[in-house]
Amino acid sequence: MSASIAAAKSVNSKPAKAKKQKEPWKVSEIVCMVVTAILFCIVAYPVFYAFLQSFRSYSEITIDPMGMPTHYNLDNYVRLFQETDFLAATMNTVIITVVTLAILCVILPMAAYGVERIGGKLSGFFYLLFIAGLMIPFQVRMIPLVRMFDMMGLYSTLAAVILVHLGGAAGFGILLYCSFIKGVPIEVEEAASIDGAGKLRTFWQVVFPMLLPVTSAFIITNALTFWNDFFIPLVMLDSTSAGTINVAINRMVGLLTSQWELIYTGAIISLIPSIIIFAAFQRYFIKGMAVGAVKG
Amino acid sequence: MSTSLSVAATPSKTSHKSDSAAKSSTMSAVQRRNRWMMFFFILPMLVVFLAIVIIPSLQSIQLSFTDYDGISPTYNYVGVDNYHEIITSGRFWNAVKNTLILGIGSAFIINVISLVMALLLDRIHHFSGFFRTIVYLPSLVSAFIASTIWKYMLNYNFGAVNSILKKAGLEGWVHDWLGDSHIVVWVLLFLICFTLGGNTTLIYLSNLQSVPQELVEAAEVDGASGWQVFRHVTWPMLAGSVTVNFTLSLIGGWVIFDQIQVLTGGGPGFVSETMAFFIYRLGFGEYRAGFGSAAAVLLFIIVMITTVITNKYMRGREIQA
Amino acid sequence: MLSTKSFNRLTKGVAVVAALASTVGLAACGSSRAATAGGKDSARFLYATGDETWNATVKAIVDAYNKLPNKVGTVVAEPIPSGSDYATAMKTMDATGNWPAIVDMRDTVTYIEAGKLAPIPQEVTSLVDDDAYSAYKDGNVYLTPSTANNGELGFGIVYNKQYFKDNNLSVPTTWDEFIKLMQTIKAKGQTPLATAAGEVWPSGQLWKPIASETFAKHSAKDGGFWADVKDGKAQVADLKDDLTKLKDIIDNYTLKGWQSTLDAQTTTLLVNNQAVMATTSSGLGRLRDINKVKPDFDAGYFLIPDSEGNFNVLKNSVGDSSQGLAISKQAKDNGKQYDIAVDFLKYYYSVDGANVIEKSGTMSPQIKDSSKVTRNTEIPGSTDYYALLDSPKLKWYVNETPWKTFSTFNTFFRQSRIAMQDNQSSIDDTIAKVQAEFDKDIKG
Hints:
The complex is a heterotrimer of chains A (about 300), B (about 325) and C (about 450). Chain A is mainly α and about 300 residues long. Chain A has helices at about 10, 15-20, 25-45, 45-55, 60-65, 75-85, 85-115, 120-135, 140-150, 160-180, 185-195, 200-210, 210-230, 230-235, 245-250, 260-290. Chain B has a single domain, classed as Orthogonal Bundle (MetI-like fold). Chain B has 14 helices and no strands. Chain B has helices spanning about 10-20, 30-65, 80-85, 90-125, 130-140, 145-155, 160-165, 185-195, 200-210, 215-220, 225-255, 260-265, 275-285, 290-320. In chain B, helix 4 (about 90-125) crosses helix 9 (about 200-210). Chain B is flat. Chain C is α/β, with parallel strands linked by helices. Chain C is built from 18 helices and eleven strands. The N and C termini of chain C lie far apart (about 70 Å). The interface between A and C is large, with 52 and 58 residues.
């Protein structure tokens, strides 16, 4: 699907950057900025709210849930790390996200390439098989999975979460890569193979570099998915593990009372890396997602 | 247009390849070895995928014919009893209705909003990175956390939304947003659209940025209005990403869970249950894993049918455009 | 051959991936297992978290036990996430076959039926007040109370005592007085009652005290209302009067927005004077929370009386709402862990243990020697609670639901009640639907 995410290569050639710097300010552009900013303020209201609440105490929040902070200090932030396993949870989240992505970046482009190039009915079969995975909700396969991991001795390890993410990411990944690979001219590979390069070398040395834009897009979307995921680690990690950030936050939501001050604080902390990563890589993301390339 | 996109498309280039290669003779040894090679390329991902996705799903199909409670070591086969019970229960059809509203509704709204946002972003050339980031920011917040916060903000008695309405003198607009059974599903729809649009916006944006500027300029020189340029130049170029985005949002919409769980718990009563939630509630909260599995199988069938239909339709539309 | 070479590289690649995955797995194993590592002489105590006071209590009682010179072994406290995901958490834990020795238990019937729990021996139960626990249908006791929230004594009304004093109102002693009290408050322009149905489970907070009179009439040595429904001696329609009362209170005296209000939010509504009274199912727990939020708030606690002025309270039994401490079958099989668990529970229900629990801020369970326990009465309203325990009007009743499908039925009943309160269906329709569900789940 990923609409013939055909080669952003050709898009690259357009020197967009240079154009930007010289461009003069237009009234229409400023109007767009203002509209965007207003929409942003509405949509991001919960984030502002959580940020403000992270400076209030439990009783302040409970007495007046919508009130403003009376003082600004980092007490809640300090408490979060001192009184809970939040640091361990953060580390777990980082490990899960990074390792899953690292493995995916190796096996997924290969698989997509294989699906595209294996040819004939098999191509269609494998493609559909992987795409079907997109449509199977995690809830459907949760109990058999837990049993399986337990038998393998992997239950409540980060490896279990990673494996579930790997399987879950396959559908979207194959979809994204396949439509991109379609745009990769086969002649380049044929030339390489005439030069005597094996399929594997051809792939890593010739094809994979061409896939970098789509890889960056894939990494960003999935990094966020893995980072923000709540349900899978909730089910796959029991109390012997510190859990992930969201699981740790969920543990603060109690039956009777919830530690709101820490929940909001945790929510803000979990956002910081996402924002930094996104802000830093959004340009590659746009390139990678460059859909519907201009052919000719 | 040159955009070739489909969920169920057999990759097109491959046929081209085999055509050219088949010139000489039938499948040669080299070709066969190549196919094996390609199979080994697929293998690692395939093994993980089968183990994590396909096999457990098949086990669920098996469980759907049992009275398994998820805990006991044994269970009995009960034939199609679970399926019969599900399709004769009004509760299930209500969940199907909600799933359709939230799935199709969110797919439509998210796409419209995202397209508008993308068009706005496309016109911003200064600090574009900053603006892209803030537009994406709400999607960076996990659905779980965003819903937790919204639950408080929408409280009838002290939530920010009602407080603001009261201060603005709009007493008549004050509602129990998550507790009024007549509107709760639409409120959920609204909140879901708030949190899921980030990726969609960026896919549109990257598509917009690849629209050749010359085409737009040429149209403007010809005296086309802003709307005409959009309708006749930009929109057709977006056909591919519309299909991708719509299909992805639709699939995402079918399995919405976190928001329902946190915001309403399916209530008040049963009114806001969705299929994914229904499966979870019955299969896990009420210890009826067999029954829940049967509902899950039905969900899969619905998701599959609707996705294939939408995709067929969208592809047809794409060609017309 | 070229292809062999590349194949080798491929396998190497796969091996690297596999190695990477297993390293992570091992690392995770290492770190996670270390946290709960205990030798042969330790037993795990799995407890539900979320409530800071309860967390502190568990820590205090476990520490105190571990310091005993003659303890049988060490107890390791281990938290589980609580709330709506309790069932999931338990289920996944069960799937691992890694049961702790002592469990902060809910959904007890399911786990008894599945053979996951061991009977609690008489040497423990003999320490506990007879009204505070009861046996399962097989004659064994599987659950003893973890706090003074005996049975459903925590299903009551927390109220603004200062408001009562200022307006010369008194705590109702009969059902009619309760209704009249709410009428009076309403006439003064205040909202009488806040209740919560934003989650499914708190919907019993108002319902159970109302229905308790009917339930109590069916109370018997073994059985109760639902057992009679199963045997055809009663039917859901017998609850029609009670459902009508419930609807009347919701329609006339309840703070708007109850459909989306969470149990935890009733504290906010009470301390901000948005309602004079609020329902609760955690009795002392709610009082403690109010105290934490607003220490100068003068809260009180009472039970809704029946038409004759009795407080009918469900005895701690093995049913859908039962909650308490249990010993796992796995510990019993282990032997040593079982001995530690039994010894720990004996300490838990001793006067010394009760004092430790009281000191940590939790009200200790009713034990035979309760009179020797130093009660912690710092929290406003807690004296009301203790007074109830000695009230001659307090009538314990039994309503056993020893069917593992009862939680399925009960969730349906709760949701149907909310739908009825919300005018989505009539009382009669609700009764018919609930009866049909009961026949299907329990009788069928």
